[in-house]
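Lab meeting minutes (informal)
Scribe: AK
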Amino acid sequence: TEFPSTQETMLKTIACIVSLASLVLCTASRVTQVSYIGCYLDNEARDLRGLTGVSKIGQFSIGSLMLSSASMTHELCGSFCSLGGFPYFGVQSDEQCFCGTSYGSLGAANTSDCNRACTGNGAQICGGTWCNSVFALTYPDKKYFEQSQMPNQTVVSTQSTYWTSADKTKAECLMMCEASADCQAVIFSGQQRLCHLLRFAYPPASLSSTDGDYFLRG
């Protein structure tokens, strides 16, 4: 796989104000296309389970595997789920957003069952009662990375959201992230030669003060 040299690595500082609007703006570039798939059934066990164990991403609290917002739109949910590189998202009951790596475990619903307007955009449909409007996310070429300041947002989860490899160069660290579908960002500590690979675009709180270079993928 062709990998860019250090000189070719894109350098860009990302400064995000903590708000719903800024989340969309800062992550929108990570998605090249949003495609509607269909209306699918859900239940209390949840069909889209990508946020298992996660209780907070940035300023957003997660409950029952979902983000709820009175400003919910397709763009907001898609941008939110792109923080974890998820290929699918579902919106339900006006204001609920789910992320996942698969969908449809409970079967398809009737198209007419997804009939609730999104709270943030009345022209969009956000599922129905126990029904998700499911969409696919297409991402740009993820071989490239943008270096920026360490985000002041973090991820809180009962499950680990990063893994570490020792004795790596910066180029090797970025190549490891590029080779893994689960890696969305990198923190490289040059002095310790430690490579931290992040499942989300935001680091866990335990790494937020790490002395190293931060790279966002894609």
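Next up, CB showed the second protein from the same session:
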Amino acid sequence: MSPNYIRSFSEGCLRPPTVIGQFHTLFFGSIRMFFLGVLGFAVYGNEALHFSCDPDKREVNLFCYNQFRPITPQVFWALQLVIVLVPGAFFHLYAACKSIKQEDILQKSSYTGFYIFSVFLRIVLEVVAFWLQIQLFGFKVNAIYMCDVGALEKKFNITRCMVPEHFEKTIFLIAMYTFTVITVILCVAEIFEISCRRLGFLKTQ
């Protein structure tokens, strides 16, 4: 791929053809990633080390932590961010290969339809991630986790485990849910902006 294609691709990703799309990129790329990268590490970085059960044995702690966290929240949210970026990245890669200028995307119906489809896919992926987050993490992190250690210890089946910084994790969960809702709203608003531009209610950029 030539440098011109790479430049067109990067410009398309950073400066989408709509005002709301550009704001979405700023919100998604800056605030959300900063929140996850910096604060997420501070809240979840040492969780496995401070997760302790009764009896406080290394094998019990590891077994119960794996049961408590089938996937760590940082990994889940990082995957969510990457996957949600894929539809837009494919569109801008297509636009770069076809030498489509950003200002032309909203002028031709086929380009506009393809772009709207990529935004709609982002909405679907965000909604799926929202549902998966509910299934994996719920809305609240409790201070005590009851772990089933029947497969590890035959003397007892249920043990109590202490979850470190559970209140901070609950706040972080709510924040990530909020970010998902905001990005979905922005995507819907972007489709609405495109429709208004196509109908002539708004001037094209």
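CB comment: Strands lie at 52-53, 144-148, 158-162.
No objections, moving on.
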